[in-house]
Structure prediction request, 115 residues.
Amino acid sequence: QVQLVESGGGLVQAGGSLRLSCAASGSIFRRNGMGWYRQAPRKERELVATISSGGTTNYADSVKGRFTISRDNAKSTVYLQMNSLKPEDTAVYYCNAETALGRFWGQGTQVSVSS
Prediction:
């Protein structure tokens, strides 16, 4: 079983920054594709950013230039650096892992951006 534990969410003013972390266990982390998704109230879950096992990144248009996804294979951790935050970034952010055992999700961490 793969476990993902997110941290780093919170309340921040518009224009501020936060860094989310997702610690993974139960799989060979370096082989996993990892990603961040978010779900705002009354909206469907949407992709924010992904990073492949080889380090290739992909971003939603809405966060390009503001968010950066990265990974530290030695720590089995993936990060999401979020800068220039906007109120519309308010959501629960979920870590996702694509592994040989299947697809797994973390419990989510709340990010709230005030105007």
